[in-house]
């Protein structure tokens, strides 16, 4: 595998004067044109770091805070925040400057993922980004947090949809008598990909596809509000496959739901080459959800009419829009937090989203098939699970302590150093609520390395049924008030925690899980066989601690 990349990462700046050709009928910069510029600049930054051609994989939620007008100057800065083997997160900042007043405002801050295009049949492993400033370190740390949310977003969405179904909200009929039929908002458009729409490899520019999507979505929204909608955000933009010069791209847009002053339009993009076009064999290459506002002549927000889905698929899209809005608001709370503490965002919808994803991640890890047993003692069993470069560990312990007491002791991480030698100190940074706490943990140094530290969210849940386990879920989070320091090597816990099953009134089964990489637990990943004794010793100390403490209650 070839390793490629500039040590300092990509850093690109583009300036453009907004001309009439770039603007809409109001004289405002077209959102589609801005999306093209953003994608082009970010792609240049990715290619500067990778040293090879890159393609757009996805865009996180893009929020537009300000409009740019004809004559003003748009500045787009893009920088690679973090490299993940073959993909990179690129941060994009867009500002607008008025040449007369010299006032500069932020238009948008966005994050995109780009993938290095393999040369021939080989694979490219990207070099890590060299961090030169405090801001570099902060964005590098936040990038892994955003990636975790990005990867878990689809599962959270599906779970929210299932909850809606269980609660009876998801049904085949809709009783909104005054609602506007969504069928009236359906718009279809076809574009032929020509050389100016593609890069030198013939792949269609992601920004060009985004611009076409914005056009068709805007027409769909306008059929509902009978005015000129303004794009405010793009949600869940992800490429599922490539398109090339000569492809016919079919764009289908329809209103999914309205939220008083905003409307969500879903757009699906399918590609056909000549043969596929004749046979009607579509390739689904992209989907996204665009959020629009509409203003009157005074600049006041207009209220959108309620919509009325007419099909089962329309009902699915209707409830999907609600779920996406919940996720969007939760993510916005966390990623836009500028205070020293995350207390405000946590007290809002982000608390439910992150704690839920924390519990769901542990449950998903525990349910994975393919665990291989590596060690068995009288009351301790050890399993491992390998998937790519991720190694997961499961330790099962039989404990003569009631399950509720074991849960109480294991969920309080300030007790952890009493039985786990890998915990040197543990401090509560934030008591979010009775079920959520954020801790700062330090571990002893290993030979030749600095001591590690972690900032973790610990979420606890009691069982709803006797057959269900108590759960203590752990994952790394980022707090502005606890940035990485030179004293420690900041490490990450991808997913860890305990499941505690009651066996009787006086005994329980404790299962510990940890999903790790070699950078988090080198004593485990580097030599699993030699580490079994260390794991067993830690498990024995845990049992001893639980049984000793449990006997005092």
Question: Could you outline the blueprint of secondary structure elements for this entry?
Answer:
Layout: E1 2-4, E2 11-17, H1 31-50, E3 54-59, E4 62-63, E5 73-84, E6 87-97, E7 104-116, E8 124-126, H2 134-166, E9 180-181, E10 187-192, H3 206-225, E11 229-239, E12 248-258, E13 263-272, H4 274-279, E14 283-294, E15 307-308, H5 312-335, H6 343-347, H7 349-366, E16 372-376, E17 380-387, E18 390-399, H8 403-411, E19 425-433, E20 436-442, E21 452-461, E22 470-476, E23 489-490, E24 495-504, E25 507-516, H9 522-525, H10 528-551
Parallel strand pairs: 1-8, 9-15, 21-23
Antiparallel strand pairs: 2-5, 3-7, 3-11, 4-11, 5-6, 6-7, 10-12, 11-14, 12-13, 13-14, 16-17, 17-18, 18-25, 19-20, 20-21, 21-22, 22-24, 24-25
Structure description:
The protein is built from ten helices and 25 strands. It has helices at 31-50, 134-166, 206-225, 274-279, 312-335, 343-347, 349-366, 403-411, 522-525, 528-551, and strands at 2-4, 11-17, 54-59, 62-63, 73-84, 87-97, 104-116, 124-126, 180-181, 187-192, 229-239, 248-258, 263-272, 283-294, 307-308, 372-376, 380-387, 390-399, 425-433, 436-442, 452-461, 470-476, 489-490, 495-504, 507-516. Strands 2, 3, 4, 5, 6, 7, 10, 11, 12, 13 and 14 form an eleven-stranded antiparallel beta sheet that branches. Strands 16, 17, 18, 19, 20, 21, 22, 23, 24 and 25 form a ten-stranded mixed beta sheet that branches. The chain has a two-stranded parallel sheet with strand order 1-8. Helix 2 (134-166) packs antiparallel against helix 5 (312-335) and helix 2 (134-166) packs across helix 7 (349-366). Keywords: Cytoplasm, Fatty acid metabolism, Hydrolase, Lipid metabolism, Repeat, Serine esterase. Its main location: cytoplasm.
